[in-house]
Design goal:
Helix content is 0%, strand content 49%. The protein is mainly beta. A hairpin with a 6-residue loop joins strand 1 and strand 2.
Length: 78
């Protein structure tokens, strides 16, 4: 199985009461090609999103949480 590489295009820190961070990025494979519709979730929670057709995603997470990226034909990556 191929590996998914997570590339953060931007990391924007929001000033919310619960110290959430808005993470914006692109999911790409080992050839730097976008992985369309990959799932991006926060480990051990039910919070997640799906990348668009170009592999772009946005998700809010707290400091210290781990993102899990998965897609068809790829091994999940943390």
């Amino acid at each position: 199985m191929s590996k998914i590489i997570l590339v953060f295009c931007a990391l924007i820190i929001s000033s919310s009461v619960i110290a959430q961070t808005s993470i914006t990025g692109t999911v790409v494979d080992e050839n730097n090609s976008p992985v369309p519709y990959a799932s991006v979730s926060i480990k051990n929670t039910k919070i997640g999103t799906r990348a668009d057709a170009d592999g772009n995603f946005q998700l809010s997470a707290s400091s210290g949480q781990t993102l899990v990226i998965s897609a068809i034909n790829f091994s999940p990556q943390e």
